[in-house]
Amino acid sequence: MASRLLTARFCEGVKPTPGKQIAHPDTQVRGLELRVCGDGRKAWSLRYRNREGKQRRLALGAFPAVDLAGARTAALLHLGRVAGGADPVVEKKREVEQARAQALITFDSLADAYFEACERGEWQPKGKPQRPRTLADSRACHRRHVTNVIGSLPVTDIRRTTVRQLLRGMVAKGIEAQTKRTHAFIRQVFAWAIAEFDDEVVKFNPAVGFSPIGRVKARLRVYSDDELRTLWNGLKSPADLVLPGKTGPLQIGMSRQMAIIVQLVAVTLQRKAEVAGMHERELDFVARTWLVPGARTKNGWPQLVPLSRLAIDLIEEAKRLRREMGDADGRSPSNEPALIFPARNDPNQWVRGDSITHAMRKVIPALGLQNLCVHDLRRTGSTALTSERLRVTPFIRSKVLGHRTDAGGGASVSMLHYDANEYVVDKRDALERWAKLLAEIVGDRGPDLAANENVPRGEGAPKSADPGIHHFTRG
Q: Helices 179-197 and 107-119, interaxial angle, to 10°?
């Protein structure tokens, strides 16, 4: 648009052009423009060239909030500064960044911004976006161990001694296993802040420069047969379990739905979070398999889990309880595939892993047991598989557990890149025999298990579960 001497009357009466933005330059102040958008909005801007000759455009405000006289005065002031070597656009951008940095004054606000950057894929410390499972673990770590201690502290007040005291406090509470993860999480948040804000928020990373706090001891606890029997039978009616209280016995508040998750961990030997997130679309009751997608496994690879009769019975019970829970809440059942273990308050979210852990901390003492947790069930089954009771090879045991491989050296390379076999027949045989042993231990042998007792080793899977059908490419 040709330049013209702008007037207040023109600025008020100029009409928009639908679908276009038209600039009306002012001849009185060089570079000043009234920009009229297609939707009728009007705003002032100043075009200029900085010392390096790069053209810039600086926003001066909306019309009529800023009138013609005010726009000309502001434009002349900025042009005078440009003549002196300043660059108002760069300065304004720096002010915005500083204001953003000032808003991130506490560790919690810094952590929230860090999580957002990770979710958008902008922060990739290892050259790839963080997996949802990793982010979920970091959020849980922040929620349980960090926010109540340093969450409200200004980041400039957090020193190495602050981080060390937090980690030592965790060790004093007996939660050494999470200390290393918490240390790594704090270190990553500060590393991101330094990279993102160029020392404008924090000057150094207070989570580096000192040795790890606490030792991560490999847990070796397994359930004895008696303990396994006590737990299994107690989980059949968790509503009956109580703990002593000041005014009398207190119910532990564990639902049968959550108890089934724990039992399925024992039967399938998969992780509690993987079981809790089980979805109907992952299940094939004809082939008797459960395919856990890589997005929900610890190592990021899909895991094919053959299902024993005991596992299927438990899943069917969970589905029935889900329908009853929906009826009680007034939700009509849907024909769409759904979560097997939906959270009570949100059918689109599964039961949280930390909720299961919290409930089990009450179940164990209520049953008269000590020093046991959900993950010990995986270790118990794993130990039984390679014991003289079942004599499964360590390699197949590793496949059952969803570990990458027990091979090393060249064999490891071959397994990682050149073997897409899921060993489903061998895994099915191992899990069928473990389910049979588990049922014998806990005294819970239904007619289906009794009928399958004499199935020859490796021949218990139906034809549809032939291993060739279940090969798939990883990644």
A: 80
Please give the structure tokens belonging to residue 411. Answer: 């064999």
Instruction: Select the more confidently predicted residue: 251 or 312.
Output: 312
- The number of CA neighbours under 13 Å toward the Cβ of 439 is 22
The model's pLDDT over 380-421, given as tens digits with 9 standing for 90+, comes to: 999 999 999 999 999 999 999 998 765 544 444 444 444 456
Crossing angle for the helix pair 256-268 and 353-366, to the nearest 10 degrees: 90
Neighbouring-strand partners of residue 34: 24, 44
Specify the fold of 225-470. Answer: hpI Integrase; Chain A (1.10.443)
Paired strand residues for 49: 55
- Give the pTM: 0.61
Handedness of CA 143, 146, 152, 156 (dihedral sign): negative
For tokens 């549809």, what's the residue? 464
Is the pLDDT score of 281 beyond 90?
yes
Q: Which amino acid, 316?
A: E
Give per-residue pLDDT as tens, 453-466: 444 433 333 333 33
| Those residues with Cβ within 8 angstroms of residue 170's Cβ, 6 or more apart along the chain or in another chain | 145, 176, 178, 179, 182, 213, 214
| Architecture per CATH, 8-99 | 2-Layer Sandwich (3.30)
Going across the sheet that includes 42-49, the strands are 22-25, 32-36, 42-49, 55-63
**At residue 270, what are phi and psi to the nearest 5 degrees?**
-100, 165
pLDDT-derived band at 103, boundaries 50, 70, 90? low
Residues 350, 277 contacting (CB under 8 angstroms): yes
Token representation of residue 220: 């070796």
- Dist CA 261 CA 315 (whole Å): 9
**Assigned superfamily of 104-197:** Tyrosine recombinase, N-terminal domain (1.10.150.130)
Give dist(CA 342, CA 256) in Å, integer: 13
C-beta separation of 239 from 249 below 8 A:
no
Partners of 237 in beta bridges: none
Identify the H or E element spanning 303: strand 303-306
Compute the C-alpha angle 284/288/290, nearest 5°: 60
pLDDT per residue as tens digits for the range 17-28: 998 999 999 999
What residues does each domain of the chain span?
8-99, 104-197, 225-470
